[in-house]
Amino acid sequence: MSKNNQMVSIITAAFNASKYVSETIESVLRQEYTNWELIVVDNNSNDNTLQIVKSFADKRIIGISEYKQGVGHARNAGLKIMKGSFFCFLDADDVMPPTALSSRLQIFESNPNLDFVDGRVQYVDEVLVPINKKYTPSFIGMPFDRLLKLDSSCLFGNTWMIKKDPTENYTFQTDMTHAEDLFFYLSISRGKQYSFTSDTVLLYRQREGSAMSDIRGLENGYIKLIKKIKIRLNTPFKTLFLLKLKIAKIMCLSFLFHDRNFVAAIKSPIRILKA
């Protein structure tokens, strides 16, 4: 395939990832498509994550340090030095099946007008055994409005392969610890085209202690997201209000069922709607 001689940059932000990062790197080494670079950004870890990364002799694997903590800082460091015509993100505890790159590139090849290609996600446990949970995208078209509705047909985000646009400024908001992925994709998706492959492109390790388990942090992230959408994306009032309602429902249920905090389940939606 003619497009498949172009480099794909894979950007991995890693913080205290020594337990998993070898498996992540090895999954990239097993890719069917071989013209890639893996940029692993050690985000001021206090374990031996960076030493593990640098122990791999393959020149396609680049290990760098970013001392400002936060996934946004780490990903921005990778975005600044990437060389690929396409790029995607891979968390330091997740794994790519061998066709993760090639299957998405095939969709780009079949439709040169595409800007983003997504794929299926299989959730796995700590030792990569599949659990009874999957994510499958189902939308084809311009994803911007769908993202504003938190529509699950194209929402996962970390599975998007992106065709690099030289006019675009690819930057994560470094003041956000939650929902920064969503704002990033909103900021680059207006007027652009999205599709997906039916192949699995990610094994997503579901474990305790993830960012999404921090419900207070999630609430603060959503409030920042709403404010940034309001200020930077010129979003109509009705669209923004509907987004607030959906987020308010998410936060209410999160506090009720995960935190068992009934007071917060009432107060959090109020804070969201006032944002």
In short:
This protein is of the alpha/beta class and 275 residues long. Helices cover 38% and strands 19% of the residues. The chain contains nine helices and eight strands.
Overview of the molecule:
- The protein is of the alpha/beta class.
- The protein has 9 helices and 8 strands.
- Strands 1, 2, 3, 4, 5, 6, 7 and 8 form an 8-stranded mixed β-sheet that branches.
- The longest helix has 21 residues, at 237-257.
- The radius of gyration is 19 Å and the shape is globular.
Write the layout of secondary structure elements.
Elements (H helix, E strand, L loop, with lengths): L7 E7 L6 H9 L6 E7 L6 H6 L6 E5 L5 H11 L4 E4 L10 H11 L5 E9 L5 E6 L8 H5 L12 E3 L16 H10 L4 E12 L9 H18 L4 H21 L4 H13 L1
Parallel strand pairs: 1-2, 1-4, 2-3, 5-8
Antiparallel strand pairs: 4-7, 5-6, 5-7
Helix pairs in contact: 7-8, 8-9
